[in-house]
Amino acid sequence: MLDIEKIRADFPILSQKVNGKPLVYFDNAATSQKPTVVIDAISGYYKEINANIHRGVHTLSQIATDAYEVSRKKIQAHINAEKAHEVLFTSGTTHGINLVASGFGAILKSGDEVLVSALEHHSNIVPWQMLCEKTGAVLKVIPMDQNGELIQDAYDALLSEKTKIVAVNHISNALGTINPIQRMIAKAHEVGAAVLIDGAQATPHLRPDVQALDCDFYVFSGHKICGPTGTGVLYGKEVWLEKLPPYQGGGEMIKEVTFEKTTYAGLPHKFEAGTPNIEGGIVLGTSIDYLNAIGFENIAAYEHELLVYGTERLLEIEGLKIYGPNVDSGNKTAVISFNIDGIHPYDIGTIIDRQGIAVRTGHHCAQPIMSFFEIPGTIRASFAFYNTKEEIDLMVAAIKKARTMLV
Ligand SMILES: *Cc1c(COP(=O)(O)O)cnc(C)c1O
């Protein structure tokens, strides 16, 4: 099992005081904190390696290029991609989804259909709406039930030969629902549709195997897995990446340029125009090493303990309602989204912040979910492997106190 005290010592920010109180950081679904190895790797890059990549013959440029490509291979191994050039560096999940949606602009025709789910983050809704607007394709929505789980029969009924792409998250950021994506991918393939999985909320808790899943695209953000902001990954099957047109034009993505015609570079460079976030790409590899050393099975088991404990303790509070799947369903990750009767989520968030407790309040970039439950938003406590039961106790005590002030 995990030595949590030792792990916490890896994260300098966790020993800080906020508003005079020890920080209790329960906003991990928004972004994770960074361990010292990651922070040091960032400055180490600028102290020792900094040079532009893939262009210089000089030694430093080669060292930087090698480090960048080693990181790509590390990510390839981590997600079990078949080929390193199926791993593209992006600035994050949002960038990855926009790249794919934009590419499908060259593929879709009027009347084709794009499927998203009722559980999506705005990042996995808006780019598809923009695509539909441009092509005349139709956006369809896989509905969910009162438990915040996608209705599989309704999904199956929506699929047809008109469906060209299904874009769904692996895990919902707003409710913690773990979607049955293996099944959903297989079903989509039966009608010849491609599948993009938004893994932003899954990759902090598990290690996706893109070949076993057989997804066509898998996207995630570095900043949610202890890596730097402005980093991310788009995995795409080679056949799809070959088929899609480039997203941005510029340096690095070309083979030959004349004013008459430009030919594009091969994968992955075709999709990596311009000077990338070199340091970020390299250090993302460091963060993945860090998490793998702790072990995703250990992380998932411990976080589940926090989920069970947190759910139990929160339900002691009168009038508190939790949204999303049941803790014992096996379909829920360490995210607890809740409301208290008669109190606006924002008020709770503001009061407990005075006690140093950081939770998210609002719609969590998933307004359609809030509309479904007919609520303005929720309070969301999202746990990471460096959180503790004692911190949950502090949050519950602070909420109980806030409640007596507000009702
Ligand atoms: C955070 C998140 C995103 C957006 O990620 P960015 O890092 O902001 O690009 C998309 N989908 C889900 C499920 C998320 O949790």
Automatic annotation (TrEMBL):
<dbReference type="InterPro" id="IPR015424">
    <property type="entry name" value="PyrdxlP-dep_Trfase"/>
</dbReference>
<dbReference type="GO" id="GO:0031071">
    <property type="term" value="F:cysteine desulfurase activity"/>
</dbReference>
<dbReference type="InterPro" id="IPR020578">
    <property type="entry name" value="Aminotrans_V_PyrdxlP_BS"/>
</dbReference>
<dbReference type="GO" id="GO:0006534">
    <property type="term" value="P:cysteine metabolic process"/>
</dbReference>
<dbReference type="Pfam" id="PF00266">
    <property type="entry name" value="Aminotran_5"/>
</dbReference>
<protein>
    <recommendedName>
        <fullName>Cysteine desulfurase</fullName>
        <ecNumber>2.8.1.7</ecNumber>
    </recommendedName>
</protein>
<keyword id="KW-0032">Aminotransferase</keyword>
<comment type="similarity">
    <text>Belongs to the class-V pyridoxal-phosphate-dependent aminotransferase family. Csd subfamily.</text>
</comment>
<dbReference type="InterPro" id="IPR000192">
    <property type="entry name" value="Aminotrans_V_dom"/>
</dbReference>
<feature type="domain" description="Aminotransferase class V">
    <location>
        <begin position="24"/>
        <end position="394"/>
    </location>
</feature>
<keyword id="KW-0663">Pyridoxal phosphate</keyword>
<dbReference type="InterPro" id="IPR015422">
    <property type="entry name" value="PyrdxlP-dep_Trfase_small"/>
</dbReference>
<comment type="function">
    <text>Catalyzes the removal of elemental sulfur and selenium atoms from L-cysteine, L-cystine, L-selenocysteine, and L-selenocystine to produce L-alanine.</text>
</comment>
<dbReference type="GO" id="GO:0008483">
    <property type="term" value="F:transaminase activity"/>
</dbReference>
<dbReference type="InterPro" id="IPR010970">
    <property type="entry name" value="Cys_dSase_SufS"/>
</dbReference>
<dbReference type="GO" id="GO:0030170">
    <property type="term" value="F:pyridoxal phosphate binding"/>
</dbReference>
<keyword id="KW-0808">Transferase</keyword>
<dbReference type="InterPro" id="IPR015421">
    <property type="entry name" value="PyrdxlP-dep_Trfase_major"/>
</dbReference>
